């Protein structure tokens, strides 16, 4: 799942160049960005603890495959619900308190896993974790809007969003060592304490630029130099009338669940297929998610390179998506891989393809919609992806319980992206922008890149 900074692209018409303010502007805003990066990293560590520990908790607790899928689904259901209301809550209470509420909930939920004793209690803890974590990206995006001029928002968003990949790498490095040394409860308590530590620092240090006493006058002027722009949200009912909305939602619905599968079932697969112990899981998972990080960067770069080479946005975007979909295709054979490292290579290639795909899918929103509609479209797509994740979790649980084989699951994962690309092509064959009823004749589309 993975999440982005909607509407954070550059707008050269209103951007105030740094040179106008001289060399001594200050860098306090980048400290804020570092805190957002840390929060995003922690959120992905927290959500992946269960996945890393799954094969051992399942043996200890006696969970069936369906019961484990129920626990995973609880997180995804809460995440979907949270995406519908998190933005409104954060707007109501402000970034400082809204973000604090979100991370406070997920910190308590993360530590609450240590008290769980069965399916119901784990599901309750996962539901609370998903509800809290759904506020991370809306709050971080709002903080970027408050602290960065428009010309720097895409960069700031890209930096904090990279925490999703960092967290996916840190979790298999940290969690097995803590669990093997102090017990599985300690792994949940440790990551929950990380969240609580961040929350304390956030409440102490975060203020809006106009209320931050440590901010220099020059940097405050630089941040506030651009004129305010209208930020009226486009109603969902209006957006649902456009096939462009359905194209983005379909792309998320069919492919986000594959990423959830990698996060929550991959350690179970490696344990079941190759007999890896708790500490032994670390190296394969780290390699897989390092490849995912590389894919995220390369996938976003490829479309831009193709456009600079003279291809239309339509051909460049879909060409990049096609290549990423083809990178995922060989994962169909992962369940039958003859040795561990071949399986790691196939899955790593697939995670790289997913992240490159996701970078381009999110950029579809700025290809197809004016800036003021991007946040709403991304929210709708995120909801669709979370619902797809709930469905795939149930299907995986039933398949594994009935057959004991990961073969059909990997077959499903390998073909999902090509199928999703076909749906996108049928709905938006030329990537023509949506003609919103109230859209100005001059348009306000942005082609700024976003990442997954």
Automatic annotation (TrEMBL):
* Alphabetical UniProt keywords: Cell inner membrane, Cell membrane, Membrane, Signal, Transmembrane, Transmembrane helix, Transport
Tell me what reaction this enzyme catalyses: aldehydo-D-galacturonate(out) + H(+)(out) = aldehydo-D-galacturonate(in) + H(+)(in)
Q: Which domain of life is it from?
A: Bacteria
GO CC entries: plasma membrane
- Ranges for domain Major facilitator superfamily (MFS) profile come to 32-432
The UniProt entry, under Gene3D superfamilies, shows: MFS general substrate transporter like domains
One Pfam family recorded for the sequence: MFS_1
Location in the cell reads: Cell inner membrane
Q: Which InterPro entries match?
A: MFS, MFS_dom, MFS_Na/Anion_cotransporter, MFS_trans_sf
Membrane-topology annotation of the record = Multi-pass membrane protein
One GO molecular-function annotation for this sequence?
A: hexuronate transmembrane transporter activity
Q: Quote the CDD domains the UniProt record gives.
A: MFS_ExuT_GudP_like
Transmembrane feature ranges: 66-90, 97-124, 182-204, 246-266, 286-307, 319-335, 374-400, 406-428
What protein family does this chain belong to?
Belongs to the major facilitator superfamily. Phthalate permease family.
- PANTHER family this protein is in? HEXURONATE TRANSPORTER, SOLUTE CARRIER FAMILY 17
Protein name according to UniProt: MFS transporter
| Native organism | Dyella solisilvae
């Amino acid at each position: 799942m993975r999440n982005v900074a909607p509407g954070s692209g550059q707008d050269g018409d209103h951007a105030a160049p740094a040179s106008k303010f001289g060399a001594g502007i200050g860098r306090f805003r980048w400290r804020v960005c570092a805190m957002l990066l840390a929060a995003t990293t922690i959120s992905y560590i927290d959500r992946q603890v269960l996945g890393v520990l799954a094969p051992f908790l399942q043996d200890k607790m006696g969970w069936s495959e369906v019961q484990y899928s129920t626990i995973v689904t609880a997180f995804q259901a809460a995440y979907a619900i949270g995406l519908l209301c998190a933005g409104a809550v954060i707007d109501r209470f402000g970034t400082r308190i809204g973000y604090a509420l979100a991370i406070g909930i997920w910190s308590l939920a993360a530590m609450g896993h240590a008290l769980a004793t069965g399916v119901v209690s784990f599901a309750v803890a996962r539901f609370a974790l998903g509800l809290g974590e759904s506020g991370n990206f809306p709050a971080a995006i709002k903080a970027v809007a408050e602290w960065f001029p428009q010309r720097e928002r895409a960069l700031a968003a890209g930096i904090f969003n990279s925490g999703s990949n960092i967290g996916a790498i840190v979790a298999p490095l940290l969690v097995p060592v803590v669990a093997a040394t102090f017990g599985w409860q300690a792994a949940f308590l440790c990551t929950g304490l990380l969240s609580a530590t961040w929350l304390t620092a956030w409440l102490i240090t975060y203020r809006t630029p106009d209320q931050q006493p440590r901010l220099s006058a020059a940097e405050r002027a630089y941040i506030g130099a651009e004129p305010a722009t209208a930020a009226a949200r486009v109603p969902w009912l209006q957006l649902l009338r456009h096939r462009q909305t359905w194209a983005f939602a379909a792309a998320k619905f069919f492919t986000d669940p594959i990423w959830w599968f990698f996060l929550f079932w991959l350690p179970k697969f490696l344990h079941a297929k190759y007999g890896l112990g708790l500490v032994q899981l670390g190296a394969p998972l780290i390699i897989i998610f390092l490849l995912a990080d590389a894919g995220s960067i390369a996938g976003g770069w490829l479309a831009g390179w193709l456009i600079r080479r003279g291809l239309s946005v339509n051909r460049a975007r879909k060409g990049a998506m096609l290549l990423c979909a083809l990178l995922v295709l060989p994962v169909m054979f992962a369940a039958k891989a003859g040795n561990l490292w071949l399986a790691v290579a196939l899955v790593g290639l697939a995670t790289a393809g997913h992240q490159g795909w996701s970078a381009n899918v999110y950029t579809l929103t700025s290809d197809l919609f004016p800036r003021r509609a991007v946040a709403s479209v991304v929210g709708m797509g995120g909801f669709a992806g979370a619902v797809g994740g709930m469905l795939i979790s149930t299907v995986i649980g039933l398949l594994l319980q009935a057959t004991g084989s990961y073969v059909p699951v990997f077959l499903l994962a390998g073909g999902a992206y090509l199928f999703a690309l076909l749906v996108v092509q049928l709905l938006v064959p030329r990537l023509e922008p949506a003609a919103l009823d109230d859209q100005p004749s001059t348009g306000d589309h942005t082609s700024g890149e976003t990442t997954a």
